[in-house]
Fold this sequence. Notes:
- It is built from eight helices and 18 strands.
- By secondary structure, the chain is an alpha+beta fold.
- It is elongated and about 80 Å long.
Amino acid sequence: MSKLISILAAEAIHLLKELITTPSFSREEDQTAGIIGLFFANKGIAHFRIGNNIYASNKYFDESKPTILLNSHHDTVKPNKAYSLNPFNPLEKDGKLYGLGSNDAGGPLVALLASFLFFYDRADLKYNLVYAASAEEEISGKNGIEYMLNNPSFNPPGRQWAFALVGEPTQMQMAVAEKGLLVLDCIATGIAGHAAREEGDNAIYKAIKDIEWFSNFRFPRVSDFLGPVKMSITVIETENKAHNVVPSQCSFVTDIRVNELYTFEEILDIIKSNVTCDVQPRSLRLKSSSIALDHPIVKAGLEAGRTCYGSPTTSDKALIPFPALKMGPGDSARSHTADEYIYIDEIKEGIELYVKLLEKLL
C-alpha cells in the first residue's frame, strides 16, 4: 500500500467511526450529512448539499470531459433487536470494526471517498470525478440519489455521465446486474355475510386462488446473471376483527424481484391476465439494471481478477439512468444483522482496488 493510500485509509476509518457514533436512519441523516460536509471543509474542498445528500467534484473539473460518479449512501436501517453490542459504539476488535452501518454501507462510503481524494487534485484526468454521499437508500426514498440527479446544480443539462461506481458491500466483486423490485398491493373482493349461514362470497377464498397462481407461476425468461423472476407473497390481511363475518375484502402484498429480461409493464400484463384480484404497483421506479461486460470499468475489474455476478438486492444503482457497477468492501450477508461489522483490511483493500481500477481509466 502506498504512503498516500495508507494516509487516506486511516482518515477514512476515522471518519467511519465518527459516522457510526451518529444515528442516521433513513430520512434522519441530517447529522451525518453535516459530518461528511465538515470532513470536506477541513480539507478545503468545495462541497454542496441537497437535502441530506452531500457531493463534491474534483479540483480541475472540466464540463467538456465525461464524468464518473462515485456514489454510496450514509443512511442506515434501525438496529436489529438481537444486538449484543452498542450499535453506535465503533468497537475495533480482532481486525473488525463493529457498529451500525459499518458494513452497509459505511465501509464502501469511506473507501470511495478516499479514492476520490486520491485523484482529487490531479490536473491530468481524462474524466471528471463526482463523489456523492446519498440519503434514503435503505427505503428507496425519493430524496436520495434520484433527487440529486433531478437537481440541475448536481446534474446540469448536457452533462455527460460516463458511468457510476455504486459502493455497496460485494466483497469487491462486480455486481454487473441487479434485480428490480416491483411491489404489488393486491385486493380480492367478495360479499360480506354471516359465517353461520350460507351467505356472502368469501374474499379470502378468492385471494387464495390468486395466491396459488403467484406461488406456482414461472416466468420463462431466465437471466444468466440474475436467474428467474421471483415472486413472494409477504403480507395477507382482511378488514375483519370478528370471527363470525365472511370478509368482503382480502388484501395481500406481492414482492417481485425482476430480472433484466422483463420490463415492469410486461410483468404486470402477464399478472393481470392471470389473476382476478385488483393489482396496483406501489412504484415503477426500482427497475432491474445491468452494465455491459465489455464496459471499460468491467474490463478493468476482470483484468484485476474480479468476478462478475448478478445481485438479488436493490440499491441506488436502480435509480441511476446510466451505466453503473455495484462494488464495494464488506459482505452483503452482514447487512442489517445484529452486531454488524466490517474488517479493517477490507476497507484498506477496497481503497487500493478502487484506485487501481480508476487509474486504468483516468
